[in-house]
Amino acid sequence: MAAAASTSHSPASVQETGSFLKQPRAVWAVAFACVISFMGLGLVDPILTSIAQDLHATAGQVSLLFTSYMAVTGVAMLITGFVSSRIGAKKTLLAGLVLIVVFSAVAGAMDSIGGIVAARAFWGLGNALFIATSLATIVTLAAGSLKQAVLLYESALGIGIGLGPIVGGQLGGISWRAPFFGVAVLMCIALVATMVFLPSIPPQGPKTSVADPIKALKYPGLLVVALTSLLYNFGFFTLMLAAPFPLQTSASNVGWIFFGWGLLLAFFSIWGAPWIESRIGTVATIVVALVGFAALLAIMAIWTDHKPVIVVCVILAGAFLGINNTVITTLVMGSAPVPRPVASAAYSFVRFAGASVGPYLAGKLLEHNIHAPFWMGAGATFLAVVLLLSFKRFVPTTTDTPSHGSAEEAEDVLVGDAD
Model confidence over 337-355: pLDDT tens digits? Predict the structure, then answer.
């Protein structure tokens, strides 16, 4: 956030021309952990129908695997700054990783849908502590500009989401429990890497209040961007939850389909989004991405009974999601005159906690009409476009912000990193 960030920068920090791949080991350790963390999201997709069949659960009950995870993740965003500003960034990251390791394993050991839903809720708490602090850590320790740091973070997100369905699909072919245990093992590796390579930075400066993110929502720009993302996430998680059901295929096949989706998401997060934004502008890029995604959801609603159509639309959706994720994540950092971690915590609270209703509604609609969830997702995503354009005057017209990377700024932001 230009208004809140330190204006002191080292000469190297203001360079935009260097590759965003040239980063300290600490940044790569956190980025690797991000990849594994985001695998946990896509990992569930291929095994949704297997869990429903084995545990005799309805689509509405299975949807709670997403709802409990997202709701707790969203609400917990309010406390991440409170925690990290008191115990430091590294301890907060490690606490989140430990929770993910423990409760992903617990989820795999459960024999009831209710038990898995409860484990996913605690998993969501660990996820909030980790992803909130990891974004702020990468933003402050990465070499280069804010855009390059967010690009690295979104690359980890795209790769993780892309690999998740493959891991879930292949291990799900053995048992629906195997993917949960697989994440536990991989997160143990990420835990060790973070412990070894990330330097310990003691908490300094003012302590963050739980109320700070809520107060930040009084700024119209931040509120508009957060609500836009909330509506967009209705469509995003409708796709994640509903698409496997009309496909009626094996966990492995669903995994490969969503792997293609993840590849496009990663490609357009890293290369597509910056290229398009540089040519048509920030708001226009978001609008194009949202309209494209809404159109694909509408096509899936019309031709739900045609599996090839669902497959193609799922894969193509990755392109629009990749574009939107990168641009809107960078945009939120400059949408209010508050510290970046506070702005990001407020944004994440609204989009995760609010959008957690989406997969539940999609699951309930699936029980009555297989077309309905896709119409709901398309409608919500289109409303996001209407909202953004209606209040465009409050939203920054560019994601260009000063570079970061100085030791002073890194220290200032890490003490209150709350995503």
Answer: 887 778 878 888 898 887 7
> 405 — alpha (psi -120 to 50), left (phi > 0) or beta?
left
- CB within 8 Å of 273: residues ≥ 6 apart: 154, 285, 322, 323, 325, 326, 327
Residue 11 per-residue DSSP state: G
What pLDDT shows up at residue 108?
92
CATH 3.40.50.1820 fits 15-414, yes or no: no
**Could you give the C-alpha distances from 312 to 93, 309, 316, in angstroms and in order?**
37, 5, 6
Q: What is the pLDDT of residue 390?
A: 94
Q: Where are the alpha helices (DSSP H) in 303-348?
A: 307-332, 340-348
* Amino acid occupying residue 254: V
- Which residue, chain included where needed, has tokens 């997709």? 45
78 residue type, one letter: L
* Residue ranges of domains in the chain: 15-414
The model's confidence at residue 25, banded by pLDDT at 50, 70 and 90, is confident
Least confident of 47-51, 244-248, 412-416: 412-416
| Encoded tokens for 373 | 């969830």
Burial 270-286 (b: 16+ CB within 10 A, else e): bebbbebbeeeebbebb
- Residue of 291, 295, 297 lying closest to 310 (CA atoms): 297
What does the mean pLDDT of the chain come to?
82
Please give the Cα distance from 393 to 335 (Å, whole number): 12
Rounded mean pLDDT, 61-89: 85
Chain mean position to CA 385: 20
As a whole number of Å, the CA-based R_g of the chain is 20
Cα 127 to Cα 132: distance, rounded to the nearest angstrom:
8
CA distance 244 to 83: 37
In the structure encoding, which two tokens stand for residue 241, read together? 């939850």
Select from 64, 96, 94, 98 the least CA-distant residue to 79.
96
pLDDT class of 364 with cuts at 50, 70, 90: confident
Q: Are 112 and 55 in contact (CB under 8 A)?
A: yes
pTM value surpassing 0.85: no
